[in-house]
Amino acid sequence: MGALRLLMIGDVAGKPGMRAVSRLLPRIVAERSIDLVVANGENAAGGLGLTPELARELLGMGVDVVTNGNHVWRQSEFKNYIGQEPRLLRPLNLPETQPGRGFGVFETPGGVKVGVVNLIGRVYMEPSDSPFTAADRALAALKGVKVVLVDFHAEATSEKRAMAYYLDGRVSAVIGTHTHVQTADEQIMEKGAAFLTDVGMTGPHDSVIGMRRDIIVDRFVTGMPHAFKLAKGGTRFQAAALEIDPSTGRAASIERIDIPLPD
Ligand SMILES: [Fe+2]
Ligand SMILES: [Fe+2]
Predict the structure, then answer these.
(1) Structure pTM?
(2) Over the stretch 95-136, which tens digit does the pLDDT of each residue have?
(3) CB-based neighbours (< 5 A) of ligand 2, an ion
(4) In a 3-state reduction of DSSP, which class is residue 256?
(5) Which residue numbers are catalytic?
């Protein structure tokens, strides 16, 4: 059996991010023979959250699974929709009273089962249950599924790296999201898990993590509250391409993707 090829797309931010996915994803999937596409969609709705319509749009563009993060409930209609669409995930270790699910099993066109787990960090983030014990729970439920991709949505590089060591040997990849800044530390760990601290943002990079730079700079200078607005320029498509041995679940390669788009 040949290598399984997965693509993990960094936080899709607003219209520039959606446009980047629609323009580039079909070509990337075709050129690289991608079997399954996962995208973090927590910023699709103008930077804050995801609507049912935007979720459907992402799925229509060739994304197979949409993960989430701290902005998951920003758009109120999303909470009523997430349970109806099994290809939408939210972080597993959010309070269990919240709607939606934190992991799932998805089948590639070639018939390979891929587990996708969405976790959220606790360092410099809102309170949540332990992402580490939540990962144990998910992996117990995914017993027998060889290929498992984890989207760990977290702020601190330390927490993400610790998670990679914790899950190495039990998952195929731990890919960080949330900071919107792509790190250059991709690696295959000792026991075969691919790891990247943060895959970055598919959205406008002429910004402070996707938001208009003038507003964010003024917010830091004055300390006064401001309404955030999504930026426009410097759009980039940022993702990670993974090759996995489907018979063992071990990663063979991880490659960062960072493609600029004309404004
Ligand atoms: Fe984000
Ligand atoms: Fe986030």
Answers:
(1) 0.98
(2) 999 999 999 999 999 999 999 999 999 999 999 999 999 999
(3) 69-70, 178
(4) strand
(5) 71
